[in-house]
Amino acid sequence: MCASLLRQNYIRRVFFGCVNDRFGGTGGVLNLHSDRAIDPPYTVYGGIFRNEAIMLLRRFYIQENEKAPNPRPKSNRELKRKLDDADEPTSLAPSFQTP
Questions:
Q1: Alpha-carbon distance 54 to 24, whole Å?
Q2: Is residue 96 part of a domain?
Q3: What is the pLDDT of residues 27-39, one digit of tens each?
Q4: Residue 62: CATH number of its domain
Q5: Which intervals of the chain are annotated as region Disordered (predicted)?
């Protein structure tokens, strides 16, 4: 998701499943949603169906894209079905909220 686009379009609340620790401006690398210098702030609810979201993304990224200009074969890839211990337990409660 694009944190800048969310702010520019005056989105008030964002709900998402899992955080990407390497990218992202809404709870991943940055917390642009709560930066008071950039108006308007918006509320973020993360971790909703977190484990399900992780598995959905894993299933998507294990697939090959036949329409890609130079497709890379993914024949040796396996779907990792077990979540890391850090991913447990499943919680439907928001992982963080900022007004």
A1: 16
A2: no
A3: 667 777 777 777 7
A4: 3.40.140.10
A5: 66-99
* Residues found in the chain: 99
When pLDDT is cut at 50, 70 and 90, the band that residue 87 belongs to is very low
The structure's pTM equals 0.60
State whether residue 60 is helix, strand or coil.
Answer: helix
Q: Is 94 contained in some domain?
A: no
Which tokens is 40 given? 């308007």
Amino acid at 86: A
The residue assigned the tokens 């990218």 is 23
Q: How far apart are CA 18 and CA 70, in angstroms?
A: 29
Domain count of the fold of the chain: 1
Structural domain contains residue 92: no
Q: Both tokens of residue 3?
A: 């944190």
Report the half-sphere exposure of 99 (CA within 13 A, side-chain side).
0
Q: How far is CA 16 from CA 27, 37, 53, 80, in A?
A: 10, 24, 9, 21
